[in-house]
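Researcher: I'm preparing a figure for a lab meeting and need a structural model of a single chain. I don't have an experimental structure, so a prediction will have to do for now. The sequence is pasted below. Please return the structure as tokens so I can convert it later.
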Amino acid sequence: MATWAIGDIQGCFDEFTALLRAIDFRPDRDRLWLVGDLVNRGPKSLDTLRFVRSLGDGAITLLGNHDLHLLAVAAGHGRTKRGDTLDAVLAAPDRQALLDWLRGRPLFHHDPALDMAMVHAALAPSWDLATAKARAAEVQAALAGDADRYFAHMYGDTPHRWDDALRGWRRLRVITDYLTRVRFCRPDGTYDMRAKGPPGTQPDGYLPWFALPGRASAGTPIVFGHWSSIGMVDGHDVYALDTGCVWGRQLSALCLEERRWVSVDCSARGPAAGD
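Model: Understood. Here is the structure written out token by token.
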């Protein structure tokens, strides 16, 4: 049995199945960790959702920002953007079953047996793994409860730093931002989501979230996606898995037991990396 963590698929279903062949994935034997962003920008989001859902317990799938965008649009609290490829999902006869399944996915995962954790984007520098799990559970509870109100408040420019005193929708918005959107932080946890390039392009005073000194989650390896412009990273107790498939680069998998990488080349679909 092998556990394979795979980067952002974003509807690139053909490349996803090619990668599964390359790692000789067998659902009766192996397990997948999917870092989120199953959908959008690639041509086959519907096929991707249907296939991953069919794997049942064979795949642990996190929510990414594109997955939340799909759910918000479907709930009437967002609009499709230029470059979105969500229409097939929204028009599918099994739309509601797929959306219900997607909405039930977690935002953080930790496996003590493997001594590994997974997040789509980032953790606040003050969160250890237990805190990250608790904060993610708050968002999951909102999605399982009044999801419509959650999506009505999910987007916003403030606040942009974690504070234990935060309450209500502002609290949930900051948790969501860290887990699904953040790349760069200051040591105090302030984040700037406008910075999307590789390290060295960020504003003064900011560092990649995983490189902050004194990060409370350091010590346990964390796999994450979301950051296609950073490419493959193996250091700082993290493994970055978004190698830009939807932008024509590669889709990558990491065997968690062996720390072995496998990648497949992808078809070009855009001129540059982005969210």
